[in-house]
Specification:
- There is one protein chain.
- It is built from 9 helices and 10 strands.
- It has a single domain, classed as TIM Barrel (Alpha-Beta Barrel), CATH 3.20.20.
- The protein has helices spanning about 20-30, 70-75, 95-100, 120-130, 145-150, 170-175, 195-200, 210-220, 230-240, and strands at about 5-10, 35-40, 45-50, 90, 105-110, 140, 160-165, 180-185, 205, 225-230.
- An 8-stranded parallel beta barrel has the order 1-2-5-6-7-8-9-10, surrounded by 6 helices.
């Protein structure tokens, strides 16, 4: 099995995370999948941004949940990274899906509801992905166990993954939550874990893996995917490992 390379928030080492330049660059680099983060605006529009507030990655301020999509669209989401990306905007989930629809990309949509448990986020995100007919190549992931349980109503239609950085009893928790995959922090990767997951019909994906030595370890362990800020480097590393 060949490990899939998933671009973390796009090619986020080379372009401002979760923006169209980062996604386009990841696609050009050859990433097989893109990971992105979804919050809900005040007017219930799912948007792509990692943080609960816009302060770090835009020229604005305030919480995503307290701003309308129209207000978010006016913000510059690129200049903080580099002046050459001035004018990059916060994207709606729908705009991202429309861009990805005709490309051979898998999508990892992380629902950012571990700090703010947005009402109906699972349902809203599902409806958008279903409308674009992309369920068959989408993974919904979340750190929130209650959100996982709500996602289970879509079991069999879309892949569901539990995200964790601290869970010790990974296989037990996966069985309890009835998920299709585990997305774990690199430090949680133990020898034989991927094989144990596969024995239980689970996919194992590792985040956020950038160093060549760590990438190679994931490849050797036969992990299903690595989530990385540097998709070009990861692909080159995988090519060298496979030859």
């Amino acid at each position: 099995m060949k490990t899939m390379i998933i671009a973390h928030r796009g090619a986020s080492r080379s372009a401002p995370e979760n923006t169209m330049p980062a996604f386009e660059l990841a696609y050009e680099m050859g990433a097989q999948a893109i990971e992105t983060d979804v919050h809900l605006t005040k007017d219930q529009v799912p948007v792509l941004i990692h943080d609960e507030t816009v302060k770090r990655t835009t020229n604005g301020k305030g919480s995503v949940k307290d701003l309308t999509f129209k207000e978010l669209e006016t913000l510059d989401a690129g200049s903080w990274f580099d002046p050459s990306f001035s004018g990059a905007r916060i994207l709606s989930l729908d705009a991202f899906l429309q861009w990805a629809k005709d490309k051979p990309l898998h999508l990892n949509i992380e629902l950012k509801n571990n700090k703010i448990d947005y009402p109906r986020l699972e349902e809203i995100a599902y409806e958008h992905v279903a409308h674009c007919q992309l369920l068959h190549r989408t993974i919904f992931s979340t750190f929130n166990p209650d959100s996982v349980k709500r996602l289970n109503r879509y079991k069999g239609e879309v892949e569901i993954a539990y995200l964790t950085s601290r869970e010790r009893h990974l296989l037990k928790k996966a069985a309890e939550l009835n998920v299709d995959a585990l997305h774990i922090k690199y430090s949680q990767l133990k020898p034989g874990l991927a094989a144990a997951c596969h024995d239980q019909g689970l996919a194992l994906r590792i985040y956020t893996v950038n160093r060549p030595s760590r990438l190679v370890r994931c490849f050797k362990e036969n992990c299903d995917a690595v989530i990385t800020d540097v998709p070009r480097d990861a692909l080159q590393c995988l090519q060298q490992f496979s030859t």
